[in-house]
Write the structure tokens for this entry.
Amino acid sequence: MTAGALHRLIREARAEPAGPAEPPERCELCGEQVPEDHRHLLDTEAQTVLCVCRPCTLLFGRETEAEEGRYRLVPGRRVRLEPVPTDRLGVPVGLAFFVPQPDGSVLAHYPSPAGAARWEVDPQAWRTACELRPELRTMRAGVEALLVNTVRGQSQHWIVPLADCLRMVAVVRQEWRGLSGGSRIWPALEQFFGELTEQR
């Protein structure tokens, strides 16, 4: 994801209006201007998420791992779940996301001021979570994630596009102050989660 795209994600998450000198968002494959509600592709070689225009979405985006090509279409669905027990998934914090991989492993990430730290989830612990919440088995590998927020009394568990998780990481990087996060990070995260809406 380019610096311009990251800045846009931060601005969207904080609901800030674009400044007058803000350049238009461009497709990261062809350079054409893209609308605000554009789609995203996962570059499976670089492991980055790209903002793309509709023609590039249709030309390059593939829906499944079985299809040939470098780019995977990031789905747009968001599904709110009943609480998912994450205590056995090795989560040291209450804000994390879990991304199933094409090889069957699951990578857990938690945001920090320096970006997202990650580790591999214990396979048996993930199978147990899937038995309790069968919806987790429907996630598309590499492009969807289980997003969990249990900080400060919250209890939110979502299946979301990977782009949403990167947007949350951008908010943390933008708003975190000092060792504990400061006073701006928690309202910004509450706003981020408050604006998530189900989309199937």
